[in-house]
Amino acid sequence: MLGFDQKPILAMFDSCCGGIIPAHIDDFDFNKAPYLARTYACTYCKQCSLYTWEVAYERHVFENMMRKHHKDMHLVHDARVVKKDKAGLVQQVQLKSRKGSALISGKQMYSLLNEVKSFHFDMQKKAGMIVVSGRGFGHHLGLCQWGARQMVREGCDYKQILRYYYPETYFIKIL
């Protein structure tokens, strides 16, 4: 079993990390899982189709989705990311409508927009559409599945892959 401090690890993984440096993520307690605080970006998943993505919403469709969170959000004319953490993950989005503006957390926005694949995204208004573009697919912690696949293609064995994604871990026996 893969371990740290003589205990099994929390072996988190995502589909494609998008090259995000996990140690820069603000809202994860790395004291409980220091091996997830990788201080370097994964470069192996860059060829994956999920590394970068984009989705466009017609304004009225976007408004309907936002009303699930803010009932008075009518005629939304702009949506912008206003705060990110050091890793580039969205902390806060500002919605502007004729009735004023509202702030929504990045996590809330992610949960409202099913096609958004990760917390690393930007938003802009283009020709009556709200366009969301981002990197990665998942939460950006632990093993990147597409990155590990590429490492295998390049000749890495499972031990090299696990050391890369879970630094300072080692194999332990559980009795």
Give a verbal description of the structure.
By secondary structure, the chain is α+β, with helices and mostly antiparallel strands. The chain has two domains: about 1-50 and about 140-170, no CATH class; about 50-135, no CATH class. It has four helices and eleven strands. The protein has helices at about 60-65, 105-110, 145-155, 160-165; strands at about 1-5, 5-10, 15, 50-60, 75-85, 90-95, 100-105, 120-125, 130-135, 145, 170. It has a three-stranded antiparallel sheet with strand order 2-1-11, with no helix packed on it. A three-stranded antiparallel sheet has the order 4-9-8. The chain has a three-stranded antiparallel sheet with strand order 5-6-7. It starts with a strand and ends with a strand. About 35% of the residues are buried. The mean pLDDT is about 95.
